[in-house]
Design a protein that fits this description.
heterodimer; A: 176 residues; mainly alpha; Arp2/3 complex 21 kDa subunit ARPC3; two-stranded antiparallel ribbon; 3% strand; B: 396 residues; alpha+beta; Thrombin, subunit H
Amino acid sequence: MANSSGRMLLSQSDGPVSRFRAWVLIVIPLLAILFQVYVPLFFPILSFLEMPLLVVVYLSLTQRSQVGGLLTGALIGLAQDSLSKNPLGMFGICKTLVGYFAASVGVHFNVDNTVIRLFLSFLFYFFHQTLYWVMQRMLLAQQPPFDYQSWLLFGALNAVVGVFLFHFLDKLRAAV
Amino acid sequence: MESFVNRYRNLTILLLVIFAQFLLLAVQVKNDQDVRIIRVWTVTAVTPFARVVELLRGGSVGFFRNYILLHDEDAENRRLRQQVGQLKLENIFLKNELNTAERAKALGVFQARTPSKTLAATVIGTGAGSNAKVVYVDAGSTRGVERGMAVVTPDGIVGKVIAAYPTASEILLATDADFAAGVVSQDGGVRGTLKGQGTPLLKVDYVPIQEKVQVGQWFYTSGDDRIFPRGFPVGVVRSVRDAQPFKEILLDPVGLQRGLEDVLIITQGVHQDIPPTPVADQPVYIAPPPPDESKPAPPAAAGASPPITEADKLRQEYQDSGEAQGHKFGSGESGPPNFTGITTTLPKPLPQTPTPAAAVPAIAGPKPATGATTKTTDSTRHSNQANGEPTGSTQR
């Protein structure tokens, strides 16, 4: 995946080649997790934002490698688990699957279109929340409410934020 | 087999990764034990960044709010702007210093007054889960924090430590659905179990419907849970409803009302008495204002000073009444005068000269209200408390 110039070759399809510096792949997830940990402390209204999830979706879509996507999801998810009070693996499993499916979509479709990105961000947010809810019930024997109305709303908001975030990350990718 | 694995390589890796995480999850759930090493790595990696961000925020928020945003408003006059800018910078610096000092002072005063040993800590982050009511503070096991320690503010309880890492600790807030603590009503008649609900309100469970609980009543920690020492304020009853088989009591948490920035971790708890009056309603003595030096002093009457105090006035009235009856005070020639005609109501007793420590009732043992007391804001209370004599031990 890495070439001698220190750049990461991320695309395995016949489409245009996407490149990221290695440090970007570390810094962006780290910033997303820091955002999740720190920003809601002072702006509780922003706690609906799932930055780690959006970063997983973006990296997986652009990587177009299913293995890369699922590993990205697993690592970010486990890091998020480590900073939450739930057992390790809850976010890990959800984001692993999100990463895998996002990368699968990236292999088959052109995901540079804004509308597709909006739809995918919404879809993966809803999938993530639903899967997490199922796992809470099945694996942890908890009884969280099935608050699908909030998920729909927050999914839409996350999708809008995701579009802008992806646009910014695209620039970052093109700049290097 | 090999060709099958090669053909479905991606799917195989996905299943392996998922299976590994399921295994990890199962081990934790079955043994009720955490895989601590992974959490330690992550927390140790993330908290230094969070601490730096918090440091930068603390220094720059005031600057951006008070200087940058106001900078364009006085663009008309360059010279004045420079002067104003300089003054603002000085002002910002002083304000920040004051804010920090006030926060530290409030915590310091509380630390000094409470008999429990406490450790001050700053909140540096929240839990990563969207529904999690957990925060991270900058004090960890290297500073003596241990899992299970209670976390409070001068206003009330905040939560408890659920994990202590070398550089930080994870605090489960009282509003989290997994939180529970023993509580008792102010009069000590009603005991229950405090539970978080994942909402801003707390619930007191297991209170029989025969018990009398009123809206506005205060609840305190009972000490039964062996986490929170007895006598720390928990909250005020917002609503009470009879439900089967127990009452449904909702509390407004007092410890979380003003947001969370600085907290105290109780490293060695000491049970306290529950105060007879709610913390917020406890009267605070305020000394009378100093005499206005700009006004000229009233001319003193020759030979006798006019009555100044209530006692002097009262004495004067009794003296006049006696003289009107022809009684000579001190001679012993006539019988005692008849004072029953005096209708003056006795003045309320003035408080004794307050020592700073006695001026503000402590949570553990509040002083009864006196005639010259009044309610003040908390900032006034803190400033009064600042003069209190330390009775506990402090760490920072």
